Amino acid sequence: MYIKRLFLKLLMKYCLSFNSKGLHSFDKTRKSCYDSCEINKICYMNNNLQLKLNKVYKDKLDSNDKLIKSSKFVRIITKEIKFKNGGISKVRIFSNGDFDKNIEISLKEINNIFNLCKVNPFVKFWLVTRQFETLFSYIPKHKIPENLNIMFSTPLEPNQFFIDFCNKYKIQMAKIVLTKKDSNCDSSKNGKSCIKNNCDKCFTFTPNTIRAFYIHGKGNKSKLMKLLK
User: Fold this and answer.
1) Confidence at residue 9, expressed as pLDDT on a 0 to 100 scale
2) Among 8, 53, 61, 193, whose Cα sits 20 to 30 Å from the Cα of 45?
3) Alpha-carbon span 78 to 52, nearest angstrom
4) In Å, how far from its chain's centre is CA 154?
5) With bands split at pLDDT 50, 70 and 90, how would you rate the model's confidence at 10?
6) Which of 99, 108, 110 has the alpha carbon at shortest distance from 32?
C-alpha cells in the first residue's frame, strides 16, 4: 500500500506523461478536444480508455489545464525537461486534450507553447491540434519556432482554405485512414512505439505530405466508414 501511494505521488509530481508511443507528452483534459471534434464518438481515447484513467492521472490533466494558461508554464515545464531522467529531447503537446474553445484563452496557451520552444531550442516539440481558429488567429503574426512542428488534424473533408493556410505557414496536416495500406505512419502499421521504430517524422515538417494515421479502437473502423459516406 505504501509503495502504491509513493508511486501515485511521484506520478503527480511531474506535468509530463510518458505515452504508449514512447514519447513524453504534455496533456490536458479531454473535454477541450472532445467538444470540438466531429469524430468524438469514435475517438479511441474516449471509447477505450476513459474508464482506465486513474484519479491521479485525471488530477494531472486538470492541473495541466490550469498550468498552460498561467505565467508559470514555461518555467515549470522547462525545469522538468532539463532535469527529468537526465533531460528530455522530444516532447509531444496534446496527446490528450487541445486548445481551449475560448479563443482568448487558447491564444494564451499557444503563446506559452511558442515561448517554451524558444527557451528550449535543442528540444524538438510536436503540437497536435484540431482548433483551426487558434492557428488562424495566432500564426500569421508569429513565426513558428524551428524546433516546433504543428500538426493540424483536419476535418473529414478539409476545404481548400484549410489546405492553403497550412501549406503557406508550413503546418503539417494529418488525417485518419481506414486501412494500414493508406497510412504513412510506421507505428500505425506495425503497432510498435515511435521509439522502437526509431521514428520522429512527426517532429519535422514534411512538404506536400499529409500524415495518415490508421484508425484504431474496437468497432471504430465501421463507425468511420459510416461518417465518410
Assistant:
1) 46
2) 8
3) 29
4) 14
5) very low
6) 99
Q: Which residues, other chains included, contact 183 with Cβ-Cβ below 8 Å and sequence gap of 6+?
A: 177, 189, 212, 213, 214
Residue 148 phi, psi (nearest 5): -125, 125
pTM of this prediction? 0.85
SS3 for 199?
coil
Instruction: Name the strand (E) or helix (H) holding 148.
Output: strand 148-153
User: pLDDT class for 202, splitting at 50, 70, 90?
Assistant: very high
150 φψ region: left (φ > 0), alpha (ψ -120 to 50), beta (else): beta
Three cell numbers, residue 2: 505504501
Report the pLDDT value the prediction gives residue 18, as an integer from 0 to 100.
84
CA distance 158 to 160: 7
Q: What is the C-alpha separation between 145 and 166, in angstroms, rounded?
A: 15
Provide the percentage of residues in the chain whose pLDDT is more than 90.
Answer: 53
Q: What are phi and psi for residue 216, nearest 5 degrees?
A: -140, 165
